[in-house]
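@channel sequence for tomorrow's demo:
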Amino acid sequence: MNRPSITSLHAVSQDWARALYDYVMDSGRLLVLEVDPGPRRIVHANVAFRSRFAGFADVRGQSLDRFLDGEEDLLDLPVPGDGDRPMARLVHTLLGGEACLFHAYPLETRVLLIGEVVEGADHEVVGRMGNLALDMSRLVRDLRKANQALARANALNEQLARTDALTGLANRGYFMERLAAGVAQAHSRGHRLSVVMVDLDHFKEVNDRYGHAAGDAVLVALAGLLREVVRASDLSGRLGGEEFGIFLFDSDGDTALAVAERVRAGLARQRPLEGDYRPSASLGVAELSPGEADGDLMRRADAALYAAKGQGRDRVVLAPPPG
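structure tokens (generated this afternoon):
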């Protein structure tokens, strides 16, 4: 029988080859082997291969040449990582002399062999080789689509887990996580860092007078203002209820004061509701001191915010240094 020439399939990345391995290992039709290409020893074989050629016996550690005819240029195994291109070979088994069509897929350090027993004339073998190549290509394509969909779903879930559902800003957990990292980096590199606490004035009255949907509209309007004011390197978040926070990396107290004042003035110009409602907010600002923890920094900013409320609201107050 004339052996068909090598057939190259589409390039398959390491990840897709591993996904292919997981998918086909339980196949009842396909013969699947994982092989160490150096000593050409079997690392793992699926039930379909063991049932046909080993009576279900464990073949791990045995030489590949015990089962496949090494005198027929059987498997010029590809080097893992060398192009990651699966190759097709027609070989014969030593046990029974059956012709088998195998594809070799490079894994990280091993080679995955996927094949099936071939029966028929030369032209039928060529046809089956093409069909198997097409099946493998479709399988890899489907696995790629499934993995891409899973990656998108995971990314969306991660985004939802750190985002406030109403405003789209960072939620409290993610804000505090990023702040802690920013404080650690500021201490280690000698950078400045400041935080701004924002609390809408008389917000309960908004909900009582206009309804919770109107209150949500006010919160969303403030969130949009914060997006306009903060830089890409900064982070704004909704910390709970009508309370928001901003942390500004590499910014001193004066810079944070200016940002807070822009937020206060911008909010006063907003008209998120019909009627005579004019939103306002009280803001507290604190600059990170040497050795200060992120929790202590937030407490100073919060104290400054309540000082702003005590001084009549609709104003910005800078927290004094610790002690």
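heads up for whoever presents: The radius of gyration is 33 Å.
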